[in-house]
Design the sequence.
């Protein structure tokens, strides 16, 4: 393993920032979901990198839980999107404002 | 520069470039398919980090589960034949400011702390057995809670996405 740890950390920081920009910039709900998955992936990459460099497998167990929660989040989120789409046929975030008064 | 470094740079570039495409492309289908390459790049980086089990799990869960779910969401909420599949962006300037703040704080933390982590670990070993033992001993309760969370998400998603019956 010749690539040092900071390279992995910098890579996952860049990936996280791309995800943040995606959440803030895009107006399509599904693309926002994809950006959230990007952020979760970058955090997973950080955990795996630390786990591998510290020789401790606990980080990889945490990645397992993050994956489980990511799967649950994607399923419930897409169900909400589809339920909203049935009532109001749009996936644009600035059009979904029925909770605003 | 040895082969390991070259492989790392190839997959890091693949991950970053495809993540850029996910966020900045106009076409949602292109975003979904380049998300596939992001997931594969991250899985390859897991392999480079000797996390073999997690690399396979990444492919199975993210590519096989979440990406297919996202594609179903795209297909169900977009009229594919119309131009509605293309979407724009908003709030570009505030988002760039917030991203600059985040990347600055991440870089600060990373610059202040990276030297405290030692040299890379030993020779690669299989991690599956160690993860399994950890999940069944020290993390048994979170493991069970995760299964309950997944069950609740399954039922809730099916309930919400189902067409409600008119009385």
Sequence:
């Amino acid at each position: 393993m010749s690539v040092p740890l900071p390279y992995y950390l910098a890579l996952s920081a860049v990936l996280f920032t791309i995800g943040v920009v995606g959440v803030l910039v895009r107006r399509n709900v599904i693309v926002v979901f994809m950006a959230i998955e990007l952020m979760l992936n970058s955090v997973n990459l950080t955990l795996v990198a630390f786990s591998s460099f510290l020789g401790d497998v606990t980080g990889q167990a945490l990645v397992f839980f993050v994956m489980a929660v990511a799967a649950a989040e994607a399923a419930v989120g897409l169900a909400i999107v589809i339920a909203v789409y049935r009532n109001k046929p749009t996936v644009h975030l600035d059009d979904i404002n029925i909770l605003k008064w | 520069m040895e082969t390991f470094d070259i492989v790392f740079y190839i997959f890091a570039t693949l991950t970053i470039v495809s993540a850029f495409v996910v966020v900045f492309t106009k076409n949602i289908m292109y975003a979904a398919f380049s998300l596939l390459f992001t997931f594969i790049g991250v899985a390859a980086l897991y392999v480079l980090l000797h996390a073999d089990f997690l690399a396979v799990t990444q492919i199975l869960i993210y590519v096989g589960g979440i990406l297919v779910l996202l594609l179903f969401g795209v297909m169900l909420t977009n009229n594919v034949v119309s131009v509605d599949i293309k979407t724009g962006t908003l709030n570009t300037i505030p988002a760039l400011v917030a991203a600059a703040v985040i990347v600055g704080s991440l870089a600060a933390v990373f610059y202040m702390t990276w030297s405290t982590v030692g040299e890379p670990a030993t020779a690669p070993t299989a991690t599956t057995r160690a993860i399994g033992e950890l999940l069944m001993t020290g993390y048994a309760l979170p493991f069970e809670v995760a299964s309950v969370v997944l069950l609740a998400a399954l039922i809730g998603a099916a309930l919400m996405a189902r067409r409600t019956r008119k009385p």
In short: Chain A touches chain B through 73 residues (CB under 8 Å). The helical segments of chain A are 5-25, 29-54, 58-87.
